[in-house]
Amino acid sequence: MNPSAGGLLGRQLEFVAALRRAGLAVSSAETVDATRALLAVDLMDRGSVKAAYAASLCKRPQHRRSFDTLFDLYFPARVGDGSDRAAEEAAGLGEDGDGEIDPKALRELLRQALLDGDTDLLERLARLAVTGLGRADGQPGRQSWFTYRVMRQLNPDTLLAGLLAEMLGDEERGGFAEKVARSTIAERMRQFEEAVESEVRRRLAEDRGADAIAKNVVKPLSEQVDFLRASRDDLANLRRTVYPLARRLATRLTARKKVEERGRLDFRKTVRASLGTGGVPLQTLHKPKKPHKPELVVLCDVSGSVSSFAHFTLMLTSALREQFAKVRAFAFIDTVDEVTRFFDPGSDLAGSMARVVREADLVWYDGHSDYGHSFEVFAERYPDAITPKTSLLVLGDGRNNYRATGSAALKDLTARARHSYWLNPEPRHQWGTGDSATHQYVDLVDEMVECRNVEQLTAFVTTLLPG
Fold first, then answer.
1. Considering 181, 347, 358, 384, which has the largest number of Cβ atoms within 10 A of its Cβ?
2. How many angstroms separate the CA atoms of 202 and 69, rounded?
3. Cα–Cα distance, 101 to 107 (Å, whole number)
């Protein structure tokens, strides 16, 4: 890195703008802090510059991956092909007769680097592999770079058997040593693939501009991942997000209660007390505030189309159950069953969700969503669940497979409840389309809320909880 002062400031503003577009909350004050932090580090030391920016601009650990990706785009470690030809020749890797990278030689060197766990060599090989194997001619005067071209030609997964044999030696297969070896190799392969992806991004950003590439390469933050489109890795990250989210909300609510628990100002008592100080109200007196903890009933569609959404909403409400006087949870597909028993305090929430699907009586006819039958069975089987103290929370997309909606049953339930809310994981513009009965339900509850990700779920739960 050898930026001028003006060039660095301009690039910093572009970087901050990219962070904000990616969903990271970066304030103007934090941008100023980042500028001041640069005065305390060596600008020629890229690692120190990255650490200064991270300390000033990245507040949550789960945002670090997005931060790192964008930092590498806007402050690349090198320009051009970035190859270290002398080092590669010293390692025994040359070019074939046509002046192109020899994939066989590169693959053999990759095998050795994976075996030795040589991280520096893996990164150098990634740069060389992208240069020799990842390039494809695009529009005139422009080149394209692809990770899949590199990985397809090197195919490091096929090296697994040989690497295991060398790492284990004479040790017995199938035991703990093999598990450790497999995990180690998988982690090193992951490091190599990430290095290839990073180098491809750098080349594309150099050719087309960092702003153009940043829009497509940064994955949504975990709290912004759409519940209905989450991948397996996304779901794992979301599970890790739920627990600290519950703690933050609980802490926030506790602080809010402490501020508000003193109640409204008691004007008469305050004036009366001021008589002893010559009419000066040195101390204000307040009316005692009656504590109120509502009861919560969660009625949740756990059919396949919305199962991930139900999973995280039930996990969060269970984690926050101490904020309510009583929490009862009900799940349904085409009939309904109470699942409160699966969410006892201290239980593993992920395991609880698995038990709901495995053990609860949720299928009556064909296992496809039937909101109407589920509402009617709920009203008949659990008449005491809804009281004037109850907040009713319905979770689902309202897609009813063109069956009877049970609107009368839902109307009766919401009339008996203190509050009624419906969280819908579909975008608002899809409500009422196709087999969605949302247009028949939306006026029967106090509020129907679009809730497609953890960020929206957090905003809703904050308003739902007492305080």
1. 181
2. 10
3. 11
Place of tokens 């004479």: 170
Write a three-state SS string for 327-349: EEEEEECCCEEECHHHHCCCCCH
CA quadruple 262, 267, 269, 271: dihedral positive or negative?
A: positive
What is the spatial distance between Cα 299 and Cα 418, in angstroms, rounded to a whole number?
A: 15
The values of phi and psi at residue 63, to 5°, are -95, -5
Q: Which amino acid is at 141?
A: G
pTM of the model: 0.62
Q: Which domains does the chain have, with CATH numbers?
A: 5-74 (no CATH), 85-209 (no CATH), 292-464 (3.40.50.410)
Q: What is the mean pLDDT of residues 28-46?
A: 91
CA atoms within 13 A on the CB side of 333: 17
Main-chain dihedrals φ then ψ at residue 415, nearest 5 degrees: -65, -30
Contacts by 25-31, CB closer than 8 A, 24 or more apart = 25/59, 26/57, 30/56, 30/57, 31/56, 31/57
Tell me what the mean pLDDT of segment 154-158 comes to.
86
pLDDT for 296 equals 85
Token pair 């009933």: residue: 297
The single residue listed with the structure tokens 């002893």 is: 276
- The per-residue pLDDT for 444 is 95
For 303-309, what is the mean pLDDT? 79
The confidence band for 278, taking pLDDT boundaries of 50, 70 and 90, is: confident
Cα gap 350→311, rounded to integer Å: 8
10 Å CB burial of residue 35 (0-12, 13-18, 19+) is middle
Place of tokens 């397809």: 152
Cα(218)–Cα(229) distance, rounded to whole angstroms? 16
CA distances from residue 17 to 8, 217, 328, 354 in whole angstroms, order as listed = 14, 15, 44, 41
- Please give the Cα distance from 67 to 46 (Å, whole number): 15
Query: For 251-363, where are the E strands, in sequence order?
Result: 295-301, 326-332, 336-338
Q: Residue 248, Cβ neighbours under 10 Å: how many?
A: 12
Q: CA-CA distance, 102 to 207, in Å (whole number)? A: 25
Q: Which residue from 111, 103, 109, 108 is spatially nearest to 88, judged by alpha carbons?
A: 109
Report how far residue 204's alpha carbon sits from residue 180's, in angstroms, rounded to the nearest whole number: 36
Contact 131, 93 (CB under 8 A): no
Q: Is residue 333 within 8 Å of residue 295, measured between CB atoms?
A: no
* pLDDT confidence bin for 140, thresholds 50/70/90: low
- Using alpha carbons only, how large is the chain's radius of gyration in Å? 29
How many residues does the structure list for the chain? 467
Residue with tokens 């957090």: 458
Please report which helix (H) or strand (E) contains residue 422, including its range.
strand 419-424
